[in-house]
Task: structure prediction
Amino acid sequence: MACFLVSTAAAVGVTVAQKIVAKKENKKVVPEETEIKDYKFGCETKWSTRLKYLATTLWTGSFLLAGEHVIHGEVVPFPPFLTAAADPTDAAEMLHEMGTVGVAMCALLIVAWGVGAFLCDLIKFRKHKKKQKPQLEKEI
Amino acid sequence: MYFLTALVCTIVAGVLFFCFRDRKGLHLDFLTITFGAATLMWLVDCIACAIGGEPFLSFDDPQDGWVALWTVLGGIGLWLVVSFVLNNGKKEEPKE
Result:
């Protein structure tokens, strides 16, 4: 009915958070070519970039689902915009669906993003380890 | 039906992203994320339907075809617009 609204609200929040984090990161300007001395897991990717991917996931998913709702006639271009909102019984059902299906959708997207971000960091970490191995062997 | 459409689109976009991973200008990661997100969201919808006693996948609704078409065209359209903006929206640095 309006389950995509939960993800849309989350997307707005994440976009705002991403902008704030990006501003903070831009204040600490680090030259790109300088090597990272203390390499830590996940230090290669900025948090603003990670949040940008999460925002993209939430926005695009909500966009396609919104289209589906428009085709099914659940979203209309005139007030109250959601057909279910016109009737109190339907409105209660809609809120229940948003609380269950909508929240589950949003949670699954966040989990998928978390897994994806972790895998990206793991791949980069392994690449870094592989690069370091011959250097360490030379030193020995 | 549109869940399956989105799933197929995700797989195709994912394969294309892997094949052309060096060509950043194509922004195929965006296309994969778009379809992937929709797939996950409809997966939850399908599971909710199955829990509610309805079939997991239904092909009865005559509007399903339109939604499937929207999934493909909407995703590709969004990707084209975003790619165009990202590729042309960067400000050129002043030459010294």
